[in-house]
Amino acid sequence: MTKNNLLRGIPWRFGPNWPGKRCEAKTRKGTPCQRPAKLPVGRCRLHGGASTGPRTKDGLKRLVESKIKHGRFTKLERSKAKARAEQGRIIRRELKELETWFIDNGHLKKNWRKDLDVFFQKTSLR
User: Fold this and answer.
1) pTM value?
2) Residue 103 burial (CB < 10 Å; 0-12/13-18/19+)?
3) Helix ranges restricted to H, the chain
């Protein structure tokens, strides 16, 4: 069956009345794809039904390497970011403890931040 068969009027075997499972993908036009689906994934070969994904360790390694664009989200970088975030949480917790100690012992007023904002609004130090 070739492309010219449709032009000659020979019916397509997967026409609109075909009872089998169709591809579940949407076309660019927004209509559902009319091609027959491959069984495991429910998509036609044009929309990913022919691919079973990498099976070997080398294939998986190539896939991972092809997906890395810049290295910002590697496991090492994510662990560094988590460590920095934890350090920031520790510092903020210690600052909060110091602030409550200074307020409790009378070294700071309870609304010292508001007074500081008023001070900076009056002066041009910020």
Assistant:
1) 0.43
2) middle
3) 3-8, 57-67, 75-104, 112-122
